[in-house]
Amino acid sequence: MFGTVGWIVAGLLIGWLGWEHDHRLVLTLLMAGCADVLLGIFCFFLPATPPQRATSTGVRRVIGPDALALLRKPAFLIFFCASIAVCIPLAFYYNFTNLYLNEIGVRSAAAVQTLGQVSEVAILLVLGMVIDKLGFKKTLVLGMAAWALRYLCFAFGGTGAGFVLIIIGLTLHGLCFGFFFVAGQVYADRIAGDGRRSSAQGLIALATNGVGLLIGSLISGPIVDAFAVTGGHAWTTVWLIPAGITLLVLIGIVVLFREEPAVRRVTGNPV
Q1: Residue 209 lies in domain
Q2: Alpha carbon distance 246, 136 (integer Å)
Q3: What is the mean pLDDT of residues 214-229?
Q4: Cβ atoms within 10 A of the Cβ of 119, count?
Q5: Nearest partner of 83 among 199, 186, 222, 210, judged by Cα
Q6: pTM of the model
């Protein structure tokens, strides 16, 4: 949650300093680099955290085949594949939302985008209760539905009367991120059980931030380039593409995913 707060601070700083409007975005990289150097130095002053001795060592523990064995469970395999597929349209959001907002004339776009992180903080605070009440399947479905709705809001939004749609689309990021990504991490933790949790989390990270975003980045750039027009892009068409992909994944989860009752209960909030 506090990482999300840091994201908000960065976005507000970029917007307040006017780096987007003045075409000085190179300064964002300098800001990030300086912050990383300071954090690296700070780490040397943290308390010592020696690793606990593993009960088993060797190739199996390093490679993580125990986590791969989870893919033999139909529910986890479907969730794993959905995590890859849903991150393909996510690349559109990560890579091109700021460009979209700037092209349609939104001032201080990076600051405006932090609305998504503000909603994310609120969602993370109540996520545990939501999972307890609805279960993982319904929570994941709500997250993906919000994802599709966000792209539709972008497709039909604008700086005039349609600006409210952009605000709604940005604010939906909290639901998208919390109800799918964080809930998915909790689901992986519950289904893996003791001894395989870290490997299972690594497997999900590979599916989302690895394979899914890689495929998404490879296809989103050419698609956006294909819809370039004089003075910008045909954004309505661009955003309808990730909306369609997300809806297909959503239908797949609704039809195929079967939640195991034993892993439904979550004690406390995964903040």
Answers
A1: 68-259
A2: 18
A3: 95
A4: 20
A5: 210
A6: 0.80
